[in-house]
Design a protein that fits this description.
Layout lengths: L12 H13 L6 H14 L3 E5 L2 H12 L12 E5 L4 H9 L3 E5 L18 E2 L15 E2 L2 E2 L14 E4 L12 E5 L2 H10 L8 H9 L21 H32 L11 E4 L3 H10 L21 E2 L2 H7 L2 E4 L7 H19 L1
Parallel strand pairs: 2-3, 2-4, 3-10, 4-5, 6-7
Antiparallel strand pairs: 1-8, 7-8, 9-11
Helix pairs in contact: 1-7, 2-7, 3-4, 7-10
The structure holds pyridoxal-5'-phosphate.
Pyridoxal-5'-phosphate binds next to helix 3 and helix 4.
């Protein structure tokens, strides 16, 4: 029997070589490699500024804090913000910790599975580009775009965007995140916010020491910040991955297209982070696939049904309707055609069995 994983990491030898150099250099926290990655990533997505943090959850949280920073914490619960229920817990955790009132919004009709901004009276939203497909944000205010699934050349759309570099993402740094924005002052705030509210990191102090040295030892927290800076080790993995990203995205696209052809589907979710489909009797389907050596997943267990978020407003009938059917098939760069066809065959047999 075949053994098809949900995700298989492409070769990381080049990343390992570069990381070894950084470790041997003796500078392992964040510094020049982080700055280089921020600059190159900004160029790739077409954003004026990028600030790296240690994960996307932190990126979402810092942007929520910044957008609503003029509203005192005790009054922030008057601000309502719409998010989908079909997303990672991070999309909810960030605005909740920033003191905002989260409302779960239903998905749109059709096969995008993205949130429908028309279905909310919330004044703000965090759209999620589910599986890679761009979510239509209409004319509603966007606090930050959750772009964890959509890392694409020239994908920056003049909002704040939060990216994830988690292990299975289109570009990985093992763990990592990025904030993209268009305002320099705001970018400087994120750089301080990620390090105790301090704009003079040890890397900058080192530079001051070498160039004149006046009061090179001084630093202060200008506001009560957080601690979510990345490291040069993560940024170095990112630099190598960025060089490969066009090819990695093209590979995901190749797999998705073959699935589309084999399953008779037409959805385009380019740059394809995951491949979700609807099947009858999803839970039984998961065991059927397991019995045939294929590991699938579900994106995502619905947030509004989770203990942590069950007290929040949720009017999401369409999301609930598809949830019992939604499944994510294996998709990763360099997935072999034979494996893709094997999965297609199993899915088609299951669907046929349930039509007969
Ligand atoms: C849609 C979405 N948003 C946010 C995140 C959080 O990313 P991170 O793990 O980098 O914090 C994820 C992670 O998988 C995600 O899928």
């Amino acid at each position: 029997m075949r053994d098809i994983p949900f995700f298989k990491m492409p070769n990381l030898d080049k990343e390992a070589e570069e990381v070894a150099k950084v470790i041997r250099s003796g500078w392992v926290t964040f510094g020049p490699k982080t700055a280089e990655f921020e600059e190159k990533f900004a160029k790739y997505i077409g954003a004026p500024y990028c600030v790296m943090v240690d994960n996307c959850t932190a990126a979402l949280y810092l942007t929520c804090e910044h957008v609503f920073s003029r509203i005192p914490k005790e009054e922030r619960n008057k601000v309502t913000i719409g998010i989908p229920s079909l997303t990672c817990a991070a999309t909810a955790i960030a605005p909740i910790h920033a003191g905002l009132t989260v409302k779960f919004i239903d998905i749109e009709e059709g096969d995008s599975f993205c949130m429908d901004w028309r279905k909310t009276d919330a004044s703000w939203q965090i759209p999620v580009h589910y599986a890679g497909k761009e979510c239509d944000t209409g004319n509603r205010l966007v606090a930050v775009e959750d772009s964890a699934h959509r890392i694409i050349r020239n994908g920056y759309k003049n909002h704040r965007q939060a990216y994830s570099f988690y292990a299975t993402k289109n570009l990985t740094t093992s763990e990592g995140g990025m904030i993209a924005c268009s305002n320099e002052e705001e970018a400087i705030w994120y750089k301080k916010a990620r390090l105790y509210g301090n704009g003079n990191a040890s890397f900058s102090r080192d530079k001051m020491y070498s160039s004149g040295g006046e009061k090179y030892w001084e630093f202060e927290s200008e506001f009560v910040g957080w601690k979510c800076n990345p490291t040069d080790i993560l940024a170095t993995i990112g630099l190598v991955q960025l060089e490969k990203l066009d090819e990695l995205n093209a590979e995901r696209e190749r797999v998705a297209k073959r699935y589309n052809e084999g399953l008779g589907l037409t959805t385009d979710r380019s740059p394809w982070h995951i491949y979700p489909i609807l099947v009858p009797e999803r839970d039984k389907f998961m065991y059927y696939m397991k019995d045939n050596g294929v590991k699938c997943s579900v994106h995502f267990p619905l947030l509004h049904r989770m203990k942590a978020f069950s007290h929040l407003s949720a009017n999401v009938p369409l999301t609930e309707k598809i949830y019992d059917k939604i499944v994510t098939l294996p998709l990763y760069p360099y997935m072999e055609n034979e494996d893709i066809d094997y999965v297609i065959d199993l899915v088609n047999k299951w669907k046929k069995r349930h039509l007969d």
